[in-house]
Amino acid sequence: MRVGIFLWLIIVSTSVFSKEHVVEIYKKKYIPAEITIEQGDTVIWKNIEKRQYHNVWFKQFDKEEPDYFFPDESYQRSFDKTGNFPYECGPHPRMKGTVIVTNKVK
Hints:
Layout: H1 2-17, E1 20-26, E2 29-31, E3 34-38, E4 42-47, E5 74-78, E6 83-88, E7 96-102
Parallel strand pairs: 1-4, 3-7
Antiparallel strand pairs: 1-2, 4-5, 6-7
């Protein structure tokens, strides 16, 4: 019983303190192209195109291009450090976006 309560508290406290933000991919654009989140939050990129594949490439973190994801698929990444994190779509380099991570508001 105590273990169950402990696990429940961990799940609730994690969801209270961190958020998920959605960036949609449509017509070869990240919508929104710039998003501001708090430290510890997660961004989920959802491909809502009908036929086009994409990826989310943070060149400052990843030297090699990441895998593609297809319509109705998604990719997510959590951000533990503050700063500006630009990214682009490997197969469509004109598609660019930025995640701005700020300190958590107390």
